[in-house]
Every structure is written in C-alpha cells, then in structure tokens.
Amino acid sequence: MSGGAPTPQRGFARLFNPRAIAVVGASPDAKRIGGQPIPILVASGFGGGIYPVNPKYQEIGALACYPDVAAVPKPCDLALIAVAGPLVPEVIMQCGVAGIPFAIVFSAGFREVGAGGAALEAKLKDAIAASGVRVIGPNCIGTMNLVDRVYCGFGVGFRNPNLKHGPVAFVSQSGGFAYSVVALADFEGMGFNYIVSAGNEVDVTTLDLAADFLERDEVEVVVLYLEGVNDGRRLREIGARALALGKPILTWKAGNSAAGRAAAESHTASMTAGYELYRTAFREGGFIEISDVHDLVDITRAFLGKRLPRGPNIAIITTSGGSAVLMADECDRRGLRLPRLADDTIKAIEQYAPKHCSLANPIDLTAQISGRNEDFNRIVEFALNDPNIDQLIVRYGTVQGASGAAWASGLCEIAARAGKPLLVSLGRVPDSAAPALQVFAKNGIPWILTPTRTAVAAGALSQYAEKQRRFRATQARGSQRLIAHQGLTLPPGAARLSEHASKGCLAAYGIPVARELVLAPRAIAALDAAPLEFPLVVKIDSPDIAHKTEARAVRLNVQGLDELKAAAAEVVANARRHMPEARINGVLLAEMAAGTEVIIGVVNDPYFGPVVMFGMGGVFTELLKDVTYRFAPFDAATAREMIAEIKASALLTGYRGSAPLAVDALADALSRVSLLAADHADRIAEIDVNPLFVNADGVVAADALVVLKN
Q1: How far is the CA of 269 from the CAs of 208, 284, 551, in angstroms?
Q2: How many C-beta atoms lie closer than 10 Å to residue 695's C-beta?
Q3: How many other C-beta atoms can be found within 10 angstroms of the C-beta atom of residue 488?
C-alpha cells in the first residue's frame, strides 16, 4: 500500500473545539440523557457558549433555553442531540439550515434494533446528505477533547473533569467500553487527548477519525476498538499511513469468533469480514493488536519513549531469577531473540557484577547487587551498547526515594547515549518508586508493572519496527509486475469455469499448468494413439461439477490406450449419474505432475478486495490449516515472505538433508496469481489452485477453479 499524500478529514477542528454548543433535547432532569451534557460541559470547564434547546422550558439552570434550533445564537459549531430517534432526521435538517456544521447524536433506536430502526437510519442518512451536517453516531455516548477540556457526552465516564491528558487518541465502536478503558488507563497514569464513541457511524466513521488523528501533531499513538468496518481497503491505506508517519495504531479487534460476531451485530450492527482478513491488514500496516487495558497502557508507554529497536535481539538484566525466566519465555513468544552478549561485553560486566551471578542472557545479577546503583548502571550501559543487542529490559528492586531518582537519572542518560529502547520492569509498587517514575516520565523511559507485561511491550516495539523496515523496502522496490495486464475472455454473469477454462486463465498470466487437452468421449473412443505422454489423469471437464472426486469423475495414473478409453467412459458415466443436468464440455486428459502439493486460493472480499491464501496442499490444508494471507497484488519478494511464514516451509526449502524445491518459481506463481486476481477483480470472485505441485525444477498447476461474479 502507498504511504503517499494523506487524505485526512481535516474539517474536524470545530467538532472537537467548538465555539458554542447547542444541546437539543436538553432537560433539567439529570437522570435523563438530555439532562447530563450541560452540567458535564460546565464541570469540565468549557469556555464557549452553551445553548439548551427544548420548547418545554424557558430556562435550564442559569441558561436561557431556546424553543428550536433556528433560535440558537450564531456562531454555533456543534449540536448534541438527545431527542427520540424518530425526531432526529428533522433536527439534523434544522441544524443544516441554522449553519451548525457538526452533530453528535446520542439517540438510539436505529439499525441496532432491527428492520424498523434500519428504515429510520435510512431517513437519517437522507437528512445528513441534504443538510451537509457531519454526524457522529447515532447510538453513541459522545466525545472528549482533553487538550481543550471539552466533554461532549453523557454517563459516568464524563464525570471526572480531571482526567489525565496525553498524546493518545482513542476511537471506539463501543462507547461504554471506551470510557471504562479511559478510566482504567487514567488510574495507571496514562492519559488521552481525544476519545470518540463512534456509535452506528451513519456518517463519520471510525476510519475517518483515525485518518484525522494520525495527521495531528499532538497525537503520537492512535487506539481503535473495532467490531467491523465496511471499507477494508481504506483500513489498509490508514495502516500504510501509520507506518509512513511512524505512529502506531493499537487495535482491539472484537467479534472474531462466531459468538463474538453475533454479539457485534446485535451491538452496533457492524458489518464484519472474516477475522483472517483483518489480521492480514493488521500485519501489513502500522497496527499492533492488543487484548486488554494493560496492553494499551504498557505498549503506549513503550512507544512514547520514541526509540525503536534495529532488530529482534533483546537483553534482560534483573536481580530476580524468576522474573528472568518469565520475561525470557514471553520474549520468545513475541518473536524476540536473547543472544549471547559479545565476549568483550561480558568481560567488562565481570568487573562490576557480583560473584556467582549468571552473565548469560538473561543476566541475573541476584540480590547481591542491591544498593550498588552505580555498578548496576555500568552493567546496563555495557549491555545496551553491545552490538548484538537492539533493546534492553531492566528489573531492579532498589528504586525507592532519592537514591531511586538518582539511579533512574543514570539510566536515562545511558539510554539517551545509546539511542536504543530501554524498558524498566518495576520491582516495587508504583507508589514506593514515585521519585524514580517521575524521572522516567520526564525522560521518556517506559516503566511497566510486571515482567511479562514488559516483555509484551518490548515485543510490540520490535514488531512495529520490523513492519516499518518491510514497508520501506516495499516502497523502495516500487511496483514490480512480473507480467502486464492480460485480457481474458470470460463469459457474462456469475459462473463457475471448467477446470480447462480456469487453467487457461492461469496460463494467460504465465503460471505453469500441466499439458492437457479436452476431447469428446467419441473422439477418445476412436483414438489409435495416445495424444499425450503416459501416465495421464482423466477427468470430466464441466463448469457444473466442481468436486470431481466426489462425483468419481477423475482417474489418476492411467497407463495405456485401452485403460484411457475405459477411464474416459467411466468418468463420463459417473458424472452423469452424479449430476444428470451438468453441462459436460468433454473429457480432460492431462499429463501427471509430481512434487510437493501446495494450495493457492483467492477470495475477492466485498470489503477488502482480493486476498491470496497460500499453504500446504493435500491433507495438510484441512488438517493443519497451515496457511497465510496477503492482499493482491504483491510482488515476488512478498510471496517469498508468505512461503517462509507457514510452519511447513522447511518441506519446501530443504528438510533433514532433502533437496530444496523451486521456491523462487513458487513465489513467482504466487505473485502472478495475485496479479490475475487484482487485474480482474471486477469479475473474479474466487480462484482455487489445488494442488500446485512444487518440485526441484519448478511448479505446475494440476487443478484449478475460477468462479466469476456479475
């Protein structure tokens, strides 16, 4: 994906920093939704105009109340709407007439409640289109701008006017969850600058907001809670932009299981594609998947240190053997390596390390180092500057009081000189380490509460850095097509092509297929010589019989002319018995191919576009589900990454002395399939190449199926 010119929604400035706010459906009853926004705005310190709108009242508290939106003084930039759902479209039209550019709709009762609500939501969309008002919601609980202290919402999450401010923007498709996360993160010392409950996203979407926040200088990390998006291509574009800008997007993706998808649909009616497609988008873009609040806090803190590792190698220095084991295990799970330090580094450390400690990696200095802060820091500096090490975790118990602050200052100076990430795993509760933590916060050194959580954060830094390296390498390579766009003659409408026609599509893109021809049954019966070299595969060629094995319409390893004729008659008879109405083009004769079986598949997803799946073929496909995915199109270098990712890749590259297979030819074929799928995405719905045989000399497609769409 391109990381070029951004396409943010830069018109959101007045949404988050309005000069004045109209509260439509305002109420003096604080138990009602309409009764909450005004006290919340006042308590948070909003300095602009607040205009209650409700024809039932002349005043609400100390504020004059207006009978309708048209009566609201100008300029007014934002309307908070808390009226019954059926009234919302008309209120939006009134906002358009009054020149109010933004609205946040708290009202529920739209598509999340079923068909009747969906019809009401369609009316709301029409009103938005006609009025030009940009809308957050409906069915949301509001927004927060902690930069300017503008709280536009309702509920308990808005009742703390002293929430911490930090360079993090959070967009959530669940409002209640979002503000509980904000409260928990605030408790752990993490602040935000913008929080948005996106609701049903009838107009402004989570992706619109994410794109905007990425471009803001005051935002360094974006957090998303996603149940689903209806524009997977844009999700990918935003992921590419996050890598180009160096700003990670920490992402909760919910609704991934069957039960989770059902809950998501009843919750926000979000349209969800398969989780594997989201995972593929997250893997290629600047996304880091998280699963709990502490992931958000820890990983954000790590990124705010503004240092990324140059590779996956990490060192651990601790005074606790148990924590060393925990961190080492988690580092391994996160793809980090713990190499041996250079001999010169170990010799330097030995001068300051206690006797009988372990100088392997992890380095366990034991409790003997306690109180020797300067010696501890010298050891840290040696390890962090080791050429084999890309980042470092330290865990040291003696961090209390003034000595703790001095120790922390020393670590900060070491990290600044080294230019590598240094993460601190606390050995004490935060309150007892307050002086040290203040020093760390001032100097951007991440501190994290537990050993395992620290390793998770280190893994996230490494993962993002590796994504950036791959992204830049892909950008540097540019667009490298193995073959130009090829025209295909495809029948109109939705259709399943026969195997022979499907292979013709592959061959047009230079993908090797087995030598074959299709003959009528009578022509085969009349043969006096084999048309191809034995052994042969004999199959029915029909666009209506996709699973020839189930129809008993395929014979393998046919060795002679008499056997060929008998096999042809048999597959035709079996095919007609299996599906009497099937169209039969003839009998396909193909030379037998040999090698290791792999599968290449394509699904043209309505939200993400064509995605290519690769894995081991045969029984391994269903049994092991050892597959990987990429979005089409991609080059051969990306295809080689796919091949290396599957667990069984050693079977292709050489296992226990076996000769390596033609991996470059396989990568070439994968890239060509991706080009075929992308070039003809307007017609091709699915491609199945199974099996594709890989041997030492190359690859050959032994079977294929192409499914067309309207």
Answers
A1: 18, 27, 41
A2: 15
A3: 16
Instruction: Look at residue 493 and tell me if it is in a domain.
Output: no
Looking at the structure, do residues 242 and 378 belong to the same domain, yes or no? no
Residue 488: inside a domain, yes or no?
no
Helices (H) and strands (E) in the chain, counts: 23, 30
Measure the CA–CA gap between 690 and 171, rounded to whole angstroms: 41
d(CA 78, CA 100): 6
Domain boundary among 245, 274, 301: 301
User: What percent of the chain clears pLDDT 90, i.e. is strictly above it?
Assistant: 85
Region of 102 please: left (phi>0), alpha (psi -120 to 50) or beta: beta
Q: Give the number of domains in the chain.
A: 4
Alpha helices in 203-292 (DSSP H): 206-214, 232-245, 258-267, 275-284
225 occurs within a structural domain: yes
Residues 354 and 220 in one domain: no
Task: Answer yes or no: are the C-beta atoms of 518 and 502 closer than 8 Å.
Answer: no
Structural domain boundaries enclosing 331? 307-474
Q: Per-residue b/e over 511-550, b at no fewer than 16 CB within 10 Å? A: bbbbebebbebeebeeeeeeebeeebbbbbbbbbbeebee
Q: Which tens digits make up the pLDDT trace of 577-619?
A: 999 999 999 999 999 999 999 999 999 999 999 999 999 986 6
Of 640, 693, 698, 697, which is closest to residue 671 (Cα–Cα)?
Answer: 640
Domain identity same for 140 and 235: yes
On whether both 574 and 696 belong to a single domain, the answer is: no
As a whole number, mean pLDDT of residues 633-647 equals 95
628 φ/ψ angles, rounded to the nearest 5 degrees: -140, 165
Structural domain contains residue 600: yes
The reply to whether 578 and 432 lie within a common domain is no
- Say whether both 343 and 297 belong to one domain: no
Tell me, what DSSP letter sits at residue 12? G
Largest Cα–Cα separation, the chain: 103
Distance, CA of 303 to CA of 441 (rounded, Å): 13
* DSSP string across 447-494: EESSHHHHHHHHHHHHHHHHHHHHHHHHHHH----SS--------SSS
Nearest to 204 by CA among 104, 279, 297: 104
- 680-709 pLDDT tens trace: 999 999 999 999 999 999 999 999 999 999
The beta-carbon contacts of 621-626 under 8 Å, at least 24 apart in sequence, are 621/690, 624/648
**Residue 244, Cα to own-chain centre: how many angstroms?**
16
- Give the model confidence (pLDDT) of 213-264 as tens digits: 999 999 999 999 999 999 999 999 999 999 999 999 999 999 776 554 444 4
Q: What is the mean pLDDT of residues 499-511?
A: 97
Could you tell me if 579 and 547 are in contact, meaning their C-beta atoms sit under 8 angstroms apart?
no
- Is there a single domain that holds both residue 311 and residue 274? no
Q: Hey, what are 517's tokens?
A: 């021809």
240 and 380, same domain (yes or no) = no
Mean pLDDT of 75-97: 97
- Of the three residues 259, 281, 301, the one that is the final residue of a domain is 301
pTM score, whole prediction: 0.90
